[in-house]
Request: fold
Amino acid sequence: MMWRTMLLCTVSALIFCSFSAAADTTICPTTVDVKQQLASSVDGWTPTLDDSPHRLSGITFYDGPPQEKASLVYDNIKKTAPKEIATWQFGADGKRPTWIVCSYSGTAVQLAKSLPSKTSTCQITDNRTQQLSGQPLIESVSCK
Reply:
């Protein structure tokens, strides 16, 4: 009887976790590959390329397309050493789309896309003890 109870608890936990993970609507890719080159040659120098991956180093939310420069500030921040959880809440009226922009270390390339209109909140968890490109290391991103 005990093993049945344990099995039921395990299956229930797995089902709950799969539904929780399914609630995420947008997660930035953790790395991107880019092809960079000099815009013009530099006399006496030979360009070389660093093939290290460009890791996720920043996330910005925008009210409307990023070109409009209307970045949003978090609504709440919870600091529990060494982590920091920032929460953004978005209007449900759907009048203006919310956009997410993912920034990467060592490159000016960013990825941007509009969040699904039903997205009402996003959370970013940072680890303040680790840094990448001068910013706290992003441990997780979730949107619902």
Summary: Helices lie at 2-22. The first strand starts at residue 31 and ends at 32.
